[in-house]
Structures are given as C-alpha cells and as structure tokens.
Amino acid sequence: MEHVRLMENDNLDTFFNPKSVAIIGATKNPDKAGQVIFKNFANNKKRGIFKGKIYPVNPREVTILGFKCYSRITEIPEELELVVIVVPARVVPQIMEDAVAKRVKTAIIITAGFREIGEKDLEKQVVSIAKKAGIRILGPNCLGVYYSKTGVDTLFLPETKVLTTGDEIIATPRPMFGEIAIVTQSGAFGIAALDYLAGRQIGISKFVSFGNKSDVTETEVIHYLLSDKETKVILLYVEDIKHGRRFLEIAKAVTLKKPIVALKSGKSIAGARAAASHTGAIAGSDKVYDTVFKQTGVFRAKDMEEFFDAGKALSMQPPALGKNIGILTDAGGPGIMAVDECESKGLVVNHFSDETLNKFQELKNQKVLPKFAATSNPVDLTGSVTDEMYEVAVDLMFQDPEIHGIILLGLHHLPALKEKYIDGVARISGRYKKPIVMCDIGETEMALYTRFRFDKLGIPAYPSPEDAARAMNALVQYGQFLIKNSYEKEYLSNFF
Amino acid sequence: MEHVRLMENDNLDTFFNPKSVAIIGATKNPDKAGQVIFKNFANNKKRGIFKGKIYPVNPREVTILGFKCYSRITEIPEELELVVIVVPARVVPQIMEDAVAKRVKTAIIITAGFREIGEKDLEKQVVSIAKKAGIRILGPNCLGVYYSKTGVDTLFLPETKVLTTGDEIIATPRPMFGEIAIVTQSGAFGIAALDYLAGRQIGISKFVSFGNKSDVTETEVIHYLLSDKETKVILLYVEDIKHGRRFLEIAKAVTLKKPIVALKSGKSIAGARAAASHTGAIAGSDKVYDTVFKQTGVFRAKDMEEFFDAGKALSMQPPALGKNIGILTDAGGPGIMAVDECESKGLVVNHFSDETLNKFQELKNQKVLPKFAATSNPVDLTGSVTDEMYEVAVDLMFQDPEIHGIILLGLHHLPALKEKYIDGVARISGRYKKPIVMCDIGETEMALYTRFRFDKLGIPAYPSPEDAARAMNALVQYGQFLIKNSYEKEYLSNFF
C-alpha cells in the first residue's frame, strides 16, 4: 500500500504554485466576484507573497488596479499556467478553447450554473475541451484554492464587509498558516470552516473547494495532500464520493500516513434530495459510506463540531494505542459526563491497576492529594485541588501502561487552582507517547485563557466534557486503525 | 394534574428571600469559603441589594468586614431565618442544635464530608435534629443558592482570581438576571453553567445547587419553581432522582406550565460508579430515567451543549405544534446538515405544498428570488442572497400551515447579504405563533454579531446547523407533549 501509483494528480501542484495566473472576469465593480478574486491576487502580489505574474482578463477594461488588462488570454504574451474563470456559464466553453490554445495547465471554474442546475451537457462540453490539452479543472461551482504561502486566493468572499451603518466588520477571515487541510465539496461550508478556524486560532495548510468535481475529485486532492509535508491532517467535507474504488485505495494509503476526518452529509433521505439539488450529488446509501470510511481508516464525524474537534485533536496529539481512558478531574459531575460519553463511543474507563491505586494511596497518605479524593478512575481531586495536584496525578496516570489516553478536566473555578499547572501538564505530557486532551467549561475570561493556553502548548482543549471525550475517541479510532494495519510504530516515529 | 397539592415545599421561599442570614464559619482568611460567602452577602448588603440582616458567626473573631461577629447563633439577639454552614462536618450537628434552639427556618450546608464519603450516619443525625424544628436543609456538599434580585449568594467561588502573574481575571462570573433557573446536584457543574451562561449573555432567574439532598430534593425545588413567575424554563442536572413517584407527579405538573430540560449523567456503568463516589447517588437503570422523562414531558439532553441549547430555545420561542420543519438557507451544505440532523431526531423536512411552491415560483418569476434558488424544502437562496430575500422567503414559509417550525441558516459570508435582514426576520416572526431558530457558522466578528443580534431579538442563534436542528427538536418534543396532554392552547396563551 505504501507506493500507491501516482496517476493523474501529478499536475495538481499548479493549482497551489502557479508561476502565472489569469483572472477571467476580473472587473472594477467592487460587488463582483471577479473584482474580489483579482484584488486578492493583486494585494498578495504587492505584499510580495504571490511571486508569479497576474493578468486581469476583461474585454471592456484597459487596466484593473494598475494591471494591464487583456481581452482574451490568447493575447497574453507570456506563458500562462493557471486560469481562474468567473464569467457566466455559457461563455465558459469558449474560454476553455482559448485556454487550450494558450496551453494552460490548470483551470479553476468558480462559475455556477452547470450540472447542479441540470446543465450536464454544458459541463461535459467544457471538460471535453479541457481534456484535449490535458488541462485539469477544479469546479465548476466552487470556491477554488486558498494557500497562504504562495498567495493563491480565489475566494470571492471579501475579508471585510461594510454594514448598512457604515461600519467595516470582519466577515470572511483567512486563518493563519497551520497543519490542517480543508477539502470541501460545499463552498459555503468551506468558507464557514475558515471563519470557524480563524476564530479558534487553528491554522490551515491548504484550502480546496472542488464543487461539482467535473474533473479533479476529492480522491485526487487527498492523494496530492499525501505527499504534502505541510499537511498533517485532512478535513474532508463531501456530499457524495466519485469513483468509490479509487477512493478506497487512495484514502487508505493516505490514512496510513496522516489522518482524514470526513463530514459526509446527505445521510437522510431528505438530506440526499437536498444534496442532489446542491452540487448534483447522488448520495447513495449512507451505510455504504460508513463501510468505506471504516475500511479506509477515515474518521467519520457525526456533525460539524465533531469534525473540527477531531481534526484539532489529530493534528496536535498522537493516536491512542488502546481504548482504556484515564480521566482526571476536579469536578465530579463533569467527570461523570466524560465517562458516559467515552463508554457510549465504545471506549472504556477501567478501574486502575493495584499498582496505580497504591501509588495514589501513598500520595494521599503523604497529604499530597486530598484525603477524600477519588483515586480510581476517574480521579477526582475535589474542591481542594491545587496546580501541584494536577501535575502529580497526571504524571502517575501517564506512567500506568494500561492507560492509553488521558482526559483532563480542569475546571478553573475552584479557589486554589491557578494557571501554573497548564505549563506543568504540557511539560509532563511531552515525556510520554500517549495522547491527552482537556476540557474547561465556561465562556468568560479564565475559561478562554485556560483553553487557549492548553491549545498553544499542543494539548487540545474543549468547552465541554463530551467534546473532549469525542476528541479522544477520534484518537482511539485512529490508533485502532493503525494497529490493525501494523502501522503504529512507523506512524509514531513521525510524531516524536 | 393542575392543582398538585403543595406539600413540604411551602417554606422553601426563605432560601431565596431571607429576612436575616447567619454565615457560620465566616472568617477573615481570604482563601476560605467562609470568607467568600460572607463577603458576597456583605457586598450585596452595602450595595443595597440584600435588604435583610447579616451575621458572621465565628468564636475567634470580633468583627468581620465591619460586621459584629457572634460566637454562636444563639447569641444573635434578633430573629434568624437562614443559616449558611461552612464549618467542618463533625461540628455540623452541634450547629444544627443551635439552629433548632434559635428557631431558624432554613439551613444551607455547604460543608462536604457526609454521605458522599460514606458518612451516612452523620448526615442522618444532622437531618433528624433539623426535623425536630421543621428546619429545611439544602445540601450538604452543595453550593446553595444564587438569586441576584435579593442578593442571596452562597457561592464560595470568587468572581475573580489573581493569577501567579499578579493579573486579576474573571473566574466565576454571575450571569445577569433572566428567565432560566439552574437546579443542579453537582456544584462544580452548576458553577460551570453560570460561567457558560454569563459568557453567552443568557440570564438566570435562580440558581440552586442541592448536593447530597439530605432533605430538600430536586422535586421540591422544581415544585417551588412551578409558581415562580420569574422562571420560564428549568435546567436540571441530576445524577439520580429521589422519590421517583413524587417526581413523576410534580415534574408533569411543572412541564404543563413551563419546560424542564434535564441532563442526567451516570448513564454508563462506569459513569454510575463515578456518580456513587461523587454525591452518593445510586443511579439505577438509565432506561428507567428515559421513561420517567418521557412520561413527564421533561426534555432529556444528550450532552452539555444540547442542555444549554435546548434551554435557550425553550426560553425564547413557543413550542412547535408539529414535526414538519421548514429550512431556509443561503448555503447548500449547511442546509443538508440541518436536514440530516432533523431527520435523525425524528423530525420531518417535507416537500412544500403546491400552494407554497407556486408562491415561490412567482417570486422567482418576478426576480425577487434568484432563478436558480431551490424552493422546495430546504429553500436555498444561493450565493446571490440579499437581506430582502430572507424576509420574503421566511414570511412565505411562516404562512404555510403545514410548516410547524423554521430553521434559518444565515451564513453571513455571501457578499450581498448585510445585517438588515436580522431585524426584518425578527419583526416578521413576531406575527406568527410558530418557532424559529437560526444558525450562522463562524467565530469571528460578523458571525458573533449576527448570533448575538438574533439572540437579543428573541430568535435563538446557534453556531452549527446541527445545534440549531437539535434546538428545534426540543421545541417539537415539548410541543408534542403539550398536544398529547391537550394543553397547547393554554400554554401558548401564556406565550403571546
């Protein structure tokens, strides 16, 4: 499985690293997608981020934002690698003929109005023109690519909006650079994901919205990302999957190297019907998808929140090489909530071994831990909790070979608990090859501080005990897949 | 069912409206619970919020924060209604004897170290002393009461904390006044709930943490809240329920007047074991709880997030009098996600009637809605969405008698959508007796603004399509319960 044959996807790189790009439909009208996209490139060019050449194409303009404008791409004197198409659907075949003549490598068709509204023939026509010259197409009916390192940004949603009050407000932020790739069939959901991740301060490596996938499919994109060193985890939103057998082969090759989290919508009958009118997806039986994801080691998220939560956990922590979870808490109720969610997902929260129990008892005898602390599993440090107690207890739990992962519930409200333990726990966890996730509940200053600090130190933090348990479940499921494929050692060696 | 006999709970009012209170274990030591609680009362007294008398009780002090200190409550010259006990467990029986002598009405025992650690006899002893004089006990092992209107605040978690850096930071905020009551067995979870609600700007009417419930039970508290005009929705966290038959009777009487949302933990075997060592709860079979909640019309949340989300929906919107949900979106993918979640909960997302379909077609013909908008259910306004389209479409959906509730997905990213429609939709929804919930995805400026503005106008807003669908499900389930009990008309008359 390691040496999966590279097929058609060896030229996808031009989508992310084009030496030259033309925006067909660039305009001076600020409300139009063609203006927003061209401005993205122009700004990134001026900032020195986009290092290639850029060409606005519009027969009615002479210059746009100071760049010489061309009527057709065939008039561009130099070589052209990527075209971004933002003109009405009926014009696209002609544009594609020009692209063939110009020998471009890749085309991103933002334009909607193809298969998703029944215009299958128009879509086929465009693809067949492109095929003649081996042009690869992303879309149509998509948002295309965002890659902060090279400044490719075909998102037609401007970063800010001016409200009716005149206030300018952040509307579609681009997240910072990071290790998660977003691959999405739905453009709107993709944009929403960027907004979510930016706000949660989670970075992304690459963003690809592929829409109707008339040519480049989800499978080819994840195949491309297999060898992308910047991508550690792939978040994949799909409404259907094309070429199932090929997906099975590629997805498994990818998940042996890096995790994929999938959000597959159109599960229900009404949902599948809605999907069909969205991107023309024919969803098929949802159970088939369950099987495909299971066989390929793709973690299927049950909803949007689990999608992001699992991605965050898998990008920050190693997989769990077993199902027995240790829970450490200073709050009884939330501890129970975490246990319930673990068990509902098939994880176990076993009693500790006698050895670990004895070590805890010793700590209680030495008055390092409170006399009435519960010290089986979960460990409840009670309302007397201090920073030191967390450090001592978490270290002891990491040492137990029967514990495969730790959920730390650090509710900050208790009086003697400060913030010192956060760095302490992160330092200790760095010494072990086991995953740890944490939860603090609350939406005001200290809760936000606690979670962001844990995140920053590489321990993914969540706002509810169940979220933390579900994140741990993703780490367990991924570990189970690697074990089944005798792959855990090689994988872990990448991690440490 | 309407005239459920008032039993023992007619004197619970003193917990919330005491004319005088003594804090036994008040101290000058700022790290101690006795100091925090006394300071809460002293501050509220100084601010003119707490209008009764307050007495610190501590044999080793003469005054605390300027208030004359007493060695024992029997030395207090005036009448005493409420005692708050924050002294070690072994001393509590003697304190209770004094309380009997002093003829106090109610006692909040914050102190832990009773039944939850096996000291059942000590707990029984305290209760039997109190019974002699009819003193009602909240606790032990609890946080007691927070009621912002009268300034009763027995929470020993200070609002701010000083970190090791010297920075003072908000740690345990008290939410603003509102319509949701929090009733909780777990103190730590209760505190976390306050932090969550404060951050989300959701107000509370009363907070009651009852811990070991040696005397006052969850049933009595919800019974008390039945006639509390300030409480519109009750959020109940329990690990077990005492006196099941009585709960059945009271809970049903309450839910016919106001919704209860329950989070019952200890569902799993390991969870039940953890609960037993937390508050001494004997959880029993989880299926029994499912039945009890179903019979009484209590909405059982599957996790913390659904608990708060359902509470918010039920406090802001009327119940749905049917299961058919209309979905209005500007983003295909998230629309499908909402449909999937609705169907997974047993709601339906039916095709519209011909009449509604025709009306939508007319709007498309008039170019009020985009030509390619999907106008069955879900309605997808597409990337060309404007504020006006939302207003027109939502009004049309409200008019359809076959639609029982609306989920509006208002992803703010699309270029021509501003913020005007928010007030427009709220104005329109005010004309109909049907619930509406909304979702916008994102964690930066405009997403936060959009959700807060909808919340403020009484339309509960959620950060994911599935959260919105689950909130709608709570409104549907509650509606189903009211219909089954032929109660919907009376209930709705309270609402409008």
Could you please describe the fold and organization of this structure?
The structure is a homodimer of 496-residue chains. Chain A is an alpha/beta fold and 496 residues long. Chain A has 2 domains: 8-313, Rossmann fold; 318-495, Rossmann fold (3-Layer(aba) Sandwich), CATH 3.40.50.261. In chain A, 40% of the residues lie in helices and 17% in strands. Chain A has 17 helices and 21 strands. Chain A has helices at residues 13-16, 33-46, 92-102, 120-132, 187-199, 218-226, 244-255, 269-279, 286-296, 304-316, 332-344, 354-365, 387-399, 420-429, 445-456, 465-484, 488-495, and strands spanning 20-24, 53-57, 63-64, 67-68, 82-85, 106-109, 136-138, 144-147, 152-153, 160-162, 168-170, 177-184, 204-209, 233-238, 260-264, 299-300, 325-329, 379-380, 405-409, 436-439, 461-462. In chain A, the strands form 5 sheets. A 7-stranded mixed beta sheet of chain A has the order 9-8-13-12-14-15-16, with helices on both faces. The longest helix of chain A has 20 residues, at 465-484. Chain A is elongated, with a radius of gyration of 25 Å. The first copy, chain A, starts with 12 loop residues before the first helix and ends with a helix. The model of chain A is unreliable at 1-9 (pLDDT under 50).
Any descriptors?
homodimer; 496 residues; alpha/beta; Rossmann fold; 2 domains; seven-stranded mixed sheet; five-stranded parallel sheet; 17 helices; 21 strands; 40% helix; elongated; disordered N terminus
